[in-house]
TrEMBL record, chain A:
Coiled coil: none annotated. This is ABC transporter permease subunit. The keyword Transmembrane helix applies. Keywords: Membrane, Transmembrane, Transmembrane helix. It comes from Phytoactinopolyspora halotolerans. One of its GO terms (cellular component) is plasma membrane. One of its GO terms (molecular function) is ABC-type transporter activity. It comes from the Bacteria. The chain crosses the membrane at residues 20-39, 78-100, 126-149, 161-181, 193-213, 238-261. The keyword 4Fe-4S does not apply.
Automatic annotation (TrEMBL), chain B:
SMART domains: AAA. Keywords: Antibiotic resistance, ATP-binding, Nucleotide-binding, Transport. InterPro entries: AAA+_ATPase (IPR003593), ABC_transporter-like_ATP-bd (IPR003439), ABC_transporter_ATP-binding (IPR050763), P-loop_NTPase (IPR027417). It comes from Phytoactinopolyspora halotolerans. This is ABC transporter ATP-binding protein. It is found in: Cell membrane. It is a peripheral membrane protein.
């Protein structure tokens, strides 16, 4: 059989939905970026407010660099919350469908009656999820790069914005990969979503409260959000913890889930 | 007949937790043969078939197709499967068929068109919008389009009207005549009677009888409802060969016949029978002797229901 037919079919089926997601992300990014000049103008008032806040709260908001610098603003308004959360919702739901969701629909079994390997179905669909996540991140990054001058964000270099986009993509890929692997190994869509979304939420809370709660501070090294945001690729560029660590974690998880899938009973 | 079976199941046992869905099942299907796997819902038909297709692993025993195993692509390339499955609801029937044809390395477009017109399927509609019967047609077409050497059909005519059921049976016969081995599962006797060369009767996961269709017919019980123009001639009915019980209710007689009804029908000539209705859908009833002990015990009946849930 020819390779890529399962991937191609998945992408074709998701064309329209991906277009809508792209438009939503584009709107989100543009509105956020377009608001920066006003925030900057009101800067001194904001900075006074910020000075009164406890340091922990600022870190939780992703605003350790201050709210009015371009990096601080985009981190607190986009990269530490809305953008990764939107990417996670998209990635986790797509990843949950790849094996477990289609198994539950009942569409996986007839597909596997064709001469295709189980691992091939799984990996082609995971590739599809990855590509779609990349498209959404690309839309956000390209818009930020294109509009950074009019919106007075030109302090940020193309490399920094690209690094931040890549890191956001890898963060969502990490939790999508965990979702995929759990679904592939168990055949349960519920467990798959619980694992991906549950871990994303738990590690988000762990990181968010780490500067306020001593116990969490000693554990925050384990949170992908910590890898992603501290220090932020927006100011530090391509760091190993934001780019390399998520890949080091997700690849073995994906491999293990795929191996179990090739051997287990379909449900 | 070749010297190797195309489908073989050797001591297959499948347990789900404490439940034994299939218990030490052994059967072979030869090239050019249709094997009817007969049993009520929950008897283990689907579980056996899913093990044959490599979807689930046997707890013990072995299964094989065409000298290999369905896990090998080369084997699945030559196999066709209709199961209790759902096809992607968002796809047009035609899109799904050409996608599957591509996965099989290409099937001539006119072959698909021919099957669609034979089964009267409109391929431009989305699968989710099709009726159960039309969805079943899509399933049948994808199983037949590559002229497979082995066909695994799990209740393939479910949801089809009688005319199309006959079309499907004709398609199965054509494949058989071309040398294909067919495993055909059903929970109704008339369907299997129409198609199978040999029959295996499955009960609670175990094969309780395996025989040629001709021999099975001799023991199958028939439940006939005869409506007379006048009073029921109960004595005549009771005297007929094979009649087990007669129950008269006004002008209607409920007659149970073991084996052939030929003698009974002979004797009915001239007695004013207006209508004969046959109720032979219920396997437990037809193969009374095999299912008798099951019906005696309530706990076993519960077991059957559990079985149903697992075997889908």
């Amino acid at each position: 059989m020819k390779n890529g037919l399962i991937l191609g079919q998945m992408l074709r089926e998701r064309r329209r939905a991906t277009l809508w997601w792209s438009l939503a992300i584009a709107a989100l990014v543009l509105i956020t970026a377009a608001s920066y000049p006003s925030v900057k103008e009101a800067g001194s008032a904001f900075d006074q407010l910020v000075e009164q806040m406890p340091e922990g709260l600022l870190e939780m908001m992703g605003a350790a660099d201050g709210l009015t610098t371009p990096a601080g603003y985009l981190n607190s308004q986009l990269y530490s919350n809305v953008l990764p959360i939107v990417l996670l919702i998209f990635g986790i739901s797509a990843a949950a469908w790849t094996v477990a969701g289609s198994e539950r629909e009942g569409t996986l079994e007839p597909l596997l009656a064709n001469p295709v390997h189980r691992w091939q179905v799984a990996i082609e669909r995971l590739t599809g999820t990855t590509l779609l996540l990349a498209v959404l991140t690309l839309v956000a990054t390209v818009l930020l790069v294109a509009f950074r001058s009019p919106f007075e964000l030109d302090e940020l270099s193309v490399a920094d914005l690209t690094a931040a986009g890549t890191a956001a993509f890898l963060l969502s890929l990490l939790f999508s990969g965990i979702t995929y692997a759990t679904g592939a190994a168990t055949g349960s869509k519920g467990w798959a979503i619980a694992a991906g979304a549950g871990l994303a939420t738990a590690t988000y809370v762990l990181f968010g409260l780490s500067s306020l709660v001593d116990l969490f501070e000693s554990l925050r090294w384990a949170s992908p959000w910590y890898w992603f945001l501290q220090p932020s690729p927006l100011s530090e560029g391509w760091t190993f913890q934001a780019i390399g660590v998520p890949l080091l974690v997700v690849v073995p998880v994906i491999a293990a889930g795929t191996v179990v899938f090739t051997r287990r009973d379909l449900t | 007949m070749n010297d190797a079976p195309s489908i073989h199941v050797d001591g297959l046992t499948k347990r789900f937790g404490k439940l034994t869905a299939v218990d030490d099942l052994t059967l072979q299907v030869w090239p050019g043969e249709v094997y009817g796997l007969l049993g009520p819902n929950g008897a283990g038909k689907s579980t056996s078939i899913r093990a044959l297709m490599g979807f689930i692993n046997p707890t013990s025993g072995r299964v094989g197709l065409l000298g290999g195993h369905a896990r090998e692509l080369e084997i699945r390339r030559q196999a066709g499967y209709v199961g209790d499955v759902t096809l992607d609801r968002g796809l047009r029937a035609g899109t799904l068929l050409s996608w599957y044809a591509g996965l099989r390395g290409g099937v001539p477009e006119n072959r698909i068109t021919e099957l669609c017109s034979r089964l009267e399927l409109d391929t431009s509609r989305k699968i989710g919008q099709l009726s159960t019967g039309n969805r079943q047609k899509v399933s049948i077409i994808q199983a037949f389009m590559h002229d497979p050497d082995v066909l695994i059909l799990d209740e393939p005519t479910a949801g089809l009207d009688p005319l199309l059921q006959r079309t499907v049976l004709r398609m199965v016969r054509e494949r058989r005549d071309a040398g294909t081995s067919v495993l055909y599962s059903s929970h109704t006797l008339p369907e299997v009677e129409a198609i199978a060369d040999r029959v295996g009767i499955l009960r609670a996961g175990a094969l309780v009888r395996e025989d040629t269709m001709a021999n099975i017919r001799d023991v199958a019980r028939q439940r006939l409802e005869l409506r007379f123009a006048g009073d029921v001639p109960a004595d005549v009915l009771r005297d007929a060969e094979g009649v087990a019980t007669v129950d008269a209710d006004g002008r209607t007689a409920h007659v149970v016949v073991d084996g052939s009804a030929a003698d009974l029908i002979d004797r009915l000539a001239g007695l004013g029978v207006e209508r004969i209705t046959s109720h032979d859908d219920d396997l437990e009833d037809i193969f009374f002797e095999y299912y008798q002990d099951e019906q005696d015990s309530e706990s076993n009946r519960d077991h059957t229901h559990e079985d149903q849930g697992v075997a889908r």
